[in-house]
Design goal:
The chain is mainly beta. Helices cover 4% and strands 53% of the residues. The protein has a single domain, classed as Sandwich (Jelly Rolls). It contains 1 helix and 26 strands. The protein has a 7-stranded antiparallel beta sheet with strand order 1-22-19-24-17-14-13, with no helix packed on it. Bound molecules: manganese (II) ion. Manganese (II) ion binds next to strand 5.
Length: 277
């Protein structure tokens, strides 16, 4: 057994994206540029409509996958492949931008709390130009286990205790769990030994092998097949793991490819209307 330890901790940076949505960029900022294969993690959370109402109007993507996980609120998604739907509290959307997609994500509410995460996950070169697609998964399709120690686990992607999450994408074998501690407890999570893994504590505080991680901190872990999380009552965190890709990453805004030439191609394709279709 090899236990994972904390190798780095970072806090999010306040910024804006879309047409002016206030958010915290936790991954994909100077303190943590990327974490192969993870490219970005944003947390949004506000009950002030002025901070979210402008939403994310139409914009393109190529070369990776975007994930929106809503904790609270409603967001309408629409894309160039003809998909549309409303992502609601507890629901998750997993989109493969592949060779190209143009989409928008706009609040489907004018007041109240909107809270959640957006995550970008890279694709290997062999899948960057794959067909775009997405999975819209309502909360009712996300298995939630309540363990004897009072820890509840939502299994969004991958397997936990032989319970399979609904996300079907396989390119980097992602695991995505949302954990909530109802009392002080310890929870051991089995992980593929070579997967990249991080957690983000979004309420309360936890401890990993003696290292405290408080609300608003992301912790990057060493390799290993076990993650031992000590949580205080009320702690909530997301745990992400995926197989590293190990290829060059060239990113220009919403395009993430392997070479400069491929980025130029993506920009030309977008300008000339050939990114999608
Ligand atoms: Mn997007």
């Amino acid at each position: 057994m090899s236990e994972r330890k904390v190798v780095k901790k970072v806090q999010g940076m306040a910024t804006q994206d879309g047409a002016g949505v206030s958010l915290k960029r936790i991954l994909g900022q100077p303190a943590l540029r990327n974490l192969d294969p993870f490219l970005m993690l944003d947390e949004f959370g506000s009950d002030n409509p002025g901070e979210y109402i402008a939403g994310f109007p139409e914009h393109p993507h190529r070369g990776f996958q975007t994930v929106t996980y809503m904790l609270e609120g409603k967001m309408r998604h629409q894309d160039s492949a003809g998909n549309s739907g409303v992502i609601q509290s507890g629901g998750i959307q997993w989109m493969n931008a592949g060779r190209g997609i143009i989409h928008s994500e706009m609040p489907e509410q004018t007041e109240g709390l909107m809270r959640g995460f957006q995550l970008w996950i890279n694709l290997p070169a062999s899948e960057k130009m794959s067909a775009p697609g997405y999975q819209d998964i309502p909360a009712s399709q996300v298995p939630e286990l309540t363990l004897d120690n009072g820890v509840s686990v939502k299994v969004l992607a991958g397997e936990f205790d032989q319970i399979k999450g609904p996300v079907s994408t396989q390119s980097v074998k992602p695991l995505f769990y949302d954990l909530a501690f109802s009392e002080d407890a310890e929870q051991v999570i089995d992980l593929p030994i070579e997967h990249q893994c991080f957690c983000y504590c979004y309420e309360g505080c936890i401890e990993i092998v003696g290292e405290p991680i408080v609300q608003g901190e992301l912790a990057v872990f060493s390799k290993g097949n076990k993650l031992r999380v000590k949580g205080n009552a009320g702690a909530r965190l997301i745990v992400l793991a995926a197989r590293p890709i190990g290829e060059p990453v060239v990113q220009y805004g919403p395009f993430v490819m392997n070479t400069e030439a491929e980025i130029h191609q993506a920009m030309m394709d977008y300008r000339s209307g050939r990114l999608v279709g």
